[in-house]
Each structure stands twice: as structure tokens, then as C-alpha cells.
Model the fold of this input.
Amino acid sequence: MTKPRITRIVAATAATLALLVGAIGLLHTPLGKPWLMKIGGCPIDESPASAEKSRVKTVRVERGTEVAPAHAALGFQLETLDREGVRAWASDNSVQCTEKREATFFACKHVSAAALHRSTGADEVDFTFRPGDRKLVSVTTYRFGLSVAEARSGFDTATVSLARDLGEAHTRRDTESLAAPYATASLAYRYRDLLVDVTATNLPGKGVGLMESYVSAVD
Amino acid sequence: MLRRFGAPVALAGILVLAACSSTSSGTTSSSGGSSSSSSGGSSSGGTDGGSDGGTTLYTRLGGNTGIKGAVDAIVADEVKDPTIAAFFGDNVKSPPPAGTPTVDQIKACLVNQLGNAAGGPEKYPGTPADSAGFQCRDMKTAHTGLGISSDIFDKFVTIAAGTLKRLGVADADIATIGGVLNGTKTSIVE
Done:
């Protein structure tokens, strides 16, 4: 390789790097941040370690004293199932999942009722895995835009299912009707090793939102 | 051609990651976890800070102490959601990147905001959140660039309403707080 050619390559490399560093820097300024988010955000911001740190910090405060009689979250075994298990479930049920945070977070959209062993599906099902052993530590489902009747049915179905698996809820605060703006029904279990929340809330103009959250309370 | 630019592209990739890891992502939200203390609640409310039979929303929520307990519980529940937790990534770092509030500072600002909306003496924004002098920012400034979608906002409201309900806050008061939250939506959602 001739000396002028090496010089050209070095110069081109340096110019490319300078351009990229400048562009990356600009994207992280207050003016550039909206553009950064439009292209999917910074891949480093969502670190598995910080997500796990948040989970552990929260569960240490919220957990109860008794051990949960079961650890199934909609059929997914917390602290037992791993990423491969969830990938196999997604494949078997034709569910599309996006893997993020070094594959410690799976966001799955438009999940069918059959895939969840329920009478209705979910707009979104999120799975998180512990960065260390890659075991499943949380499952969260969301359904949005539900009618009052659909939300009531979904909340009641979850209530019955959880009562069968875990017994009576530790906290249950229902409402006569979910028809009013922000009318909310809430159900919670606080075990030493498991936190469960089910919430239905009327979001004005957007129907009722229904969330089911199962979080391992193991450190 | 590909071989010629292979090295620069690989180096650029490393730099992208390095640059991202060393810069602040902005603001708001955070993690943490605190006890779910009760925040009282009974009777019905109406408008922000509205009174009912001589009590205001502020007093029904238990004043500053009750609101602090509610905010602690709401933040703890929010960060159990993996999507929402991602927005708190920088806030849980110790110390957080320059210009990024800590979890406690965010909570203090939320207490000021909710207290102010409920008719309490708290001031929002602009009030220092702690002795370090961190100034609470308005919702627009605090959330600019975070890329919060309408769906994520709806998740936040659903979780917050569930927490308040679990704590025993009355339906009408949840509706009032929900209305306050909804009023901030255009400042938060991008």
C-alpha cells in the first residue's frame, strides 16, 4: 500500500469519526433529543442493570411476609422459565415480540386469548428477565380501549383466576361501575416472593384500561 | 469498498455506544421504592383542590405527609412496569448524570405539584426540591426529549389510579387527580 493511499484512508477515517461524534453529540443535546427518540433512543439508556436495580429496590419495600402458594403468572412460571421458554411460547403461538435491553426485556404485541390461557387476549404482554441468571422475573399485560362490560369481565376473570391460585386478595377495592371517568377497580397480593396487581381504570375518551402485573419479589 | 470502510464503521459503532453511555438522557421520572403508606381519602371531591363539606382535597389526602406517602407508593408501582422503568434509568444512577434529578428530587417535585393542585400551600414549579437547591421544572421542560407516547402515558395513569385506589382514596378524588394528570398530557406526550 502506498503512503499517499494510507494517508487518504487515515484522513477519511478521521473525518468519518469526527462527523459521527458530532452527530451523536448533537443528538444528545436538548435540541437533538427529540430526534434521538424518533430513531429509537440511545441503546445504552435502557440498561438491564438499572432495570433490575429498580425492581429489587421496589419489591424489598412492597413485599409481604408469607410465601406465595403459586408462582404462575398467566401460565408463565416466575423464577423458573427463562428466555428460551418465552421465545418458544412466542413461536408456538405466533406472537411477535421485540427483545430489548440485551434480551432481558421482551415486549409482545397483540397476544391472543389462547396464548394467555384466558378468554381474551392482550394488546401488550411484557416479560422481564434477571440479567444474571436470565430467569423470568415479571409479566405485565395491558388491554386498552375496552368497553365497561369488557373491562368488568376481564377484571372479574382475573379475580377468579387469582383466587383459585392464590386465595383471597390481600387488598381488593372495587367500584360499583367502571363507567365514570377514572373509575378504578384494584386488586393486589403482597407475598414475600410475589407481587400481583390487577387494575382497571376508565381513561376518558380512551375506554377502560386493564393491567395485570406479576412481579417476582425475590432479590 | 465494504472492507475499506469496515474499520471506521466498527469504530463508529463503539463510539456510538460510548457516547450514549456517557451522556444524560434528560429528566423526569425515576425509580425508587418507598412504603405504601395510607393517604386517607373519603367523601367526594370535585375540581382541583375543591372543598367538600368543609374539607379540601388536600386535607382528604392527608396534607403534605399523606401526599408524600401516596407519591412514594405511586413511584414504586410505576417502576415495577418495565416500560416505564426505562424512563428512570438515569435517575437511579448514583450519582445521576449532571442535570438529571435523583429519585428523591423527582418525588419532592411530584409532592409539590400534587399538593399545589390539591389546594395546599406547596408551590410548583420552580420550588427547590431539596437542600441542594434542585429546582422543579415545569412538565414540558422536564419531559422534553423523553419520547413518551400516548400509550405510555395511559399506562402511567392506569397504574397511578390503581395505587390510589389501593390506598383507599375515594373515587371522586381519584377522578380529580386523574383530571390533573390528564391536563399535563399535552406537555408530556411527544
